Amino acid sequence: MARKKTIRTIPQARTPMREQPGAERARNFAEVACGYSVAEALREADRCLLCPDEPCIRGCPVGIDIPAFIARIGAKDYRGAYDVIAETNFLPAICGRVCPQETQCEAVCTVGESLEPVAIGRLERFVGDAALAEGWLNAPRVAPNGFRIGIVGSGPAGMACAADMAKAGCEVTVFEAFHLPGGVLRYGIPDFRLPNEVIDAEIDNLRRLGVRFECNTLVGRLFTIPQMIDEMGFHAVFIGTGAGTPSLLGIPGDSLNGVLSANELLTRCNLMRAKDFPEYDTPMPLGRRVAVIGAGNTAMDAMRVCLRLGAEKVYCVYRRSRAECPARAEEVHHAEGEGVEFHWLTAPVAILDDGKGGVRGMRCTRMALGEPDDSGRRRPAAVEGSEFDFEADLIVYAIGTNANPIIGQTSKLRLDKRGYIETDAGLATSMAGVFAGGDIVTGAATVIEAMGAGRKAARSMKAWLGLRDETALAGEPAGTLFGIDARERNFARIRLA
Amino acid sequence: MGAVVDDGSRFEVVSREDFSEVTYLLEIRHPMMARAARPGQFVIVMAHARGERIPLTLADFDRAKGTVTLVVQAVGKTTRQMQQHCHVGTELYGLVGPLGVPSAIGSAKKVVCVGGGLGVAPIFPQARAHRASGAYVIGVVGFRSRSLMFWEERFRACCNELIVCTDDGSAGIKGFVTDGIRHALERHADVDEVVAIGPPVMMRACAEATRPRGIKTVVSLNPVMVDGTGMCGGCRVKIGGEVRFACVDGPDFDAHRVDFDDLMARLRRHAVAERAAAERWSETCRMQRPPEPPAEEPLPLPDPFEEVRGG
Ligand SMILES: Cc1cc2nc3c(=O)[nH]c(=O)nc-3n(C[C@H](O)[C@H](O)[C@H](O)COP(=O)(O)OP(=O)(O)OC[C@H]3O[C@@H](n4cnc5c(N)ncnc54)[C@H](O)[C@@H]3O)c2cc1C
Ligand SMILES: Cc1cc2nc3c(=O)[nH]c(=O)nc-3n(C[C@H](O)[C@H](O)[C@H](O)COP(=O)(O)OP(=O)(O)OC[C@H]3O[C@@H](n4cnc5c(N)ncnc54)[C@H](O)[C@@H]3O)c2cc1C
Ligand code: SF4
Ligand code: FES
Q: Are A235 and A490 in contact (CB under 8 A)?
């Protein structure tokens, strides 16, 4: 047994992760962060104090047993580390790369009180990559139970729900509107942050659990949610359709060519591979001087994509200050390293027309922070007389999204006043047997929250179907929902079918 | 890539007809879509794995046969490539739909259905549905000349009256579809709806032709689209000064409120890149298959055990 570790005995500095150098990587689409080697992972694992009160677990939206998996790494039991993570998180190679750990588990790490916190995310990625490389899969064999589950949308919420239901012995089909599964992971987050191969491998793992993927299927239009239950023989449905149309600013020049949403830019580049135009057919608007409005993860991705496509200058225009910037700290740091120019406390007033239907520049005003608003962040207000123009030929909006209307248009599901799907605490919607989670319920959030929602919905779904569930939380309704005994209702249905 | 395959259906071309050098019809097997399709809806097609997603209107659907029909004009890279490669027995890589809000059918008693250019085929299911709902249907279809005409019999069968317009007068009346509309309105004072599908200039002209009389006029807009599911915002159009998304709020809109200047300006977006793609494709179009992409080295996944194994 090793001696007891203290803050003084552990390696003091956080183990850095190797990265492609800024100038070089800003011109290619290869992954920026290279991951830990075994030696690096062991060194970093050694920094964990294995605190008995486990603050990090509470910091994690899905409650991964962090000290346990780090301890297994320390014991060189990598498969064991994977099994610990896989109990709660099905996609460690993805979450290790994209979770905002600095505001979650790492924010509350004890080591972080005096030194830099343990690099939990990097260790998680190490384990995830090891699992992919070795083909590990945490798939307990369960006898098929005859229940058929339909999942709408193949983003992280849908994937997580699919995994849990498949593990419980259900026959699961995932319907995806695009021609490839993965949701934002595929069409939004670029290769240099999350390589397609990682997504492919995780999707393949779902296949190994028996999950079927049917792409090119827009639910609501090809068939409706009520049809899935009433005609297609699904015993329960999960909706994880993600984000909808991008918000626009509503300022003059909005509809000029050369103004587009980050979602469009990223979809063209990542999903349709416009970065390889003309080998791939989809074209891409290229900018010499690009201004991206917003400072979330989407904005960072858009800026870094534009740099890689050859833009000379990329500006980030954000009306609040750096402290309020919602992107992962690592991404802001990466964007800076690649040469993005940040303009904090700056808001666009108008987009200037080049007289030929394109963009010549943008008029902005300086902002100052006032009193805190509802979100607790200080509200920015325009500084009078501070307007100025600058040159740009491509403007990218990354200021958030609205609810996608399709499911609402084609079913009677109850929506909230902004158009998102309304659910109860267990993520059941107003339609019996139909559950929903992820961005279509909460509005834009994070991969791990979407995944957590998918798993929570799976728990409710199992309860509703009357399946025994070892992962069920105390205090959750077991057999009945909406006053119907689920087991009765569904076994009856199976017998009929 | 290619690692991820779709477990779902394939989209086989079961029949094809060439109407002219630039216009061709593809009938594709998709029983579920044939069942769901309604007039006014469209699909997004991906011809092959490296292709662009292009929107095409459902020109017909046959629930009994389980097929949907597209009529395509070869105007650029993708549509010309499809013209060359999509033969009976081949498969499309992707086909998603039906997309968009179905047209409102059933309230109008007398309808003029106008189709010009690539809008001729898409207007057909609307004309048929209006007729089936009991309306009196006047079809107006426009072609440049007789040699480009198609589906005359089908239109005659579903319209109470059909006015054919050709630019050169080689068939029907000499003139544009707006002349056809004028003819129809002169003879029928009680037309309560005009539906027009075609190039934006044509739809604008139709809107102007009916505006003075205040006749309800519906057009089907065709902005550039990417996903077609209300996510990317590329298809935004201005209707009565407000931003709407054609793929989920449309594609049908009130013609008198559409900002056609905005639509036409936005359609010129990728003009340069499109020309480059088409030219590049033309150079290689004598080859049997589209050129393979440069061999793509899959990004190796980082394997943390490499060093341990001495790899
Ligand atoms: C560019 C970008 C970068 C991001 N970076 C990060 C990050 O670094 N870290 C982080 O934690 N979060 C990040 N996020 C947020 C995160 O990706 C999302 O919160 C998360 O993906 C939401 O998951 P979801 O499963 O709800 O939906 P999505 O991932 O949006 O997936 C929904 C899927 O459903 C499909 N679909 C929609 N409607 C239908 C329908 N009717 N029928 C069938 N299929 C349908 C869609 O095509 C899509 O594939 C980022 C988001 C973006 C856009
Ligand atoms: C809702 C909708 C329904 C449509 N229905 C049909 C249809 O039934 N039959 C059909 O032949 N075409 C239809 N179109 C147009 C069709 O999508 C375009 O012709 C196609 O995308 C062109 O692709 P391309 O690669 O061959 O040409 P590109 O190389 O992309 O473009 C060649 C030329 O076509 C023009 N063009 C490009 N995109 C569009 C567009 N979306 N609309 C109009 N012109 C465009 C360009 O300005 C350019 O001049 C529809 C478009 C929409 C949005
Ligand atoms: S809080 Fe930090 S040091 Fe403590 S167990 Fe969690 S990761 Fe380890
Ligand atoms: S095509 Fe993307 S939102 Fe309409």
A: yes
Distance from the Cα of B151 to chain A's closest Cα (Å) equals: 27
pLDDT-derived band of residue B278, with 50, 70 and 90 as boundaries? Answer: low
- Hey, what's the torsion of the CAs at A218, B292, A27, A331, to 10 degrees? 30
- What residue owns the CA closest to ligand 4's atom 2? B232
Return the closest-CA partner of residue A47 out of A107, A108, A115: A115
| Domain CATH number, residue B180 | 3.40.50.80
ipTM, two decimals: 0.83
What is the CA A115 to chain-centroid distance, rounded?
28
Structure confidence by residue, pLDDT tens digits, A34-53: 888 888 999 999 999 998 88
Q: Which residues of A touch B53 (CB under 8 A)?
A: 272, 282
pLDDT in tens, B155-192: 999 999 999 999 888 888 888 898 889 989 989 888 99
- The rounded distance, in Å, linking the Cα atoms of A267 and A246 is 13
**The total number of structural domains that make up chain B:** 2
Taking the centre of ligand 3 as the mean of its atom positions, its distance from the CA of residue A49, in whole angstroms, is: 6
- H or E, element range at B44: strand B42-46
The CATH number of whichever domain residue B82 belongs to comes to: 2.40.30.10
The answer on B134 and B57 residing in a single domain is no
Residue B166 domain-assigned? yes
Cis peptide bond prior to A326, omega within 30° of 0: no
Do both B16 and B66 map to the same domain? yes
Same domain (yes/no): B49, B108: no
Task: For ligand 1, pick from A124, A297, A441 the residue to mutate: most ligand atoms within 8 Å of CB.
Answer: A297
Q: Are residues B42 and B58 in the same domain?
A: yes
Please report the domains of chain A, with CATH numbers, ordered by start residue.
22-134 (1.10.1060.10), 148-244+403-473 (3.50.50.60), 247-401 (3.50.50.60)
Q: Does B94 touch chain A (CB under 8 A)?
A: yes
Q: Which domain holds residue B68?
A: 11-99
Report pTM. 0.87
Would you say residue B23 lies in a domain? yes
B138 lies in the same domain as B194:
yes
Neighbours of B284 (CB within 10 A): 10
Per-residue model confidence as pLDDT tens digits over B63-81: 999 999 999 999 888 999 9
Between positions 174 and 203 of A, the ones with CB within 8 A of B are 177-181, 187, 191, 195-198, 200-201, 203
Torsions phi, psi of B32, nearest 5? -65, -40
Q: Tell me, yes or no, whether B160 lies in a domain.
A: yes
With beta carbons less than 8 A apart as the criterion, state whether A356 and A363 touch: no
Could you give the percent of chain B with pLDDT greater than 90?
Answer: 57
Where does the pLDDT of residue B1 fall: very low under 50, low under 70, confident under 90, or very high at 90 and above? very low
Element (H, E) at A244: strand A243-246
Query: Which pLDDT band, with edges at 50, 70 and 90, does B279 fall under?
Result: low
Which among B64, B99, B134 is the end of a domain?
Answer: B99
Give A431-458 pLDDT, tens digit per residue.
889 999 999 998 888 888 898 899 999 9
B53 CB contacts (<8 Å, ≥6 apart)? A272, A282, B44, B45, B46, B94, B225, B226, B227, B228
Which tokens in the block code for residue B230? 């209300």
Choose one of B54, B82, B99: the last residue of a domain.
Answer: B99
Name the residue facing A277 among B6, B273, B301 (closest C-beta). B273
B75 with B180, same domain: the answer is: no
B23 and B46 part of one domain = yes
